[in-house]
Amino acid sequence: MRESLDQDLMIAPGVVLKATKLSFTFSRASGPGGQNVNKVNTRATLTVSHDDLAQVLPSYAIARLASVAGSAMTAEGLQFSSSDSRSQVANRKACLDKLRGVLVEAMRRPKIRRKTKPSKGAVQRRITAKKQRGEIKQMRKKPKRGSE
Predict the structure, then answer these.
(1) Mean pLDDT, the chain, as a whole number?
(2) Residue 62, domain extent
(3) Number of domains observed in the structure of the chain
(4) What is the value of pTM for the model shown?
(5) Domain for residue 23, yes or no?
(6) Residue 16 contacts residue 1 (beta carbons within 8 Å)
């Protein structure tokens, strides 16, 4: 799964980014791997700058990105880290998957809520049902002594 450095990557639907814009760093990680963890840099950290994303994302997605990304949003840009696997390649792929997930969510436009009000018939049915329920409860009461 070797990719050349100038290859275009489909990050999200309609979003293509050059591989050179993605910055990967590798470090030693805790987690699975036994003693291998102490000698191999398998943790992958992916960083993509704000400017590079602004060039390829629509303006509405840029506006939503901060709220969707949460703690992945840093001063440098979006930053994702993975150390789930013993392999650098798998952790690199996991970082790209996290980036794709955030970008897809940022590009999804939230459904606009439109105010509605109940129809006159629905209001009338509700009031009628409440009155009937109130009458049933009134019938359960003992009659007052002086009212007969």
Answers:
(1) 82
(2) 8-107
(3) 1
(4) 0.64
(5) yes
(6) no
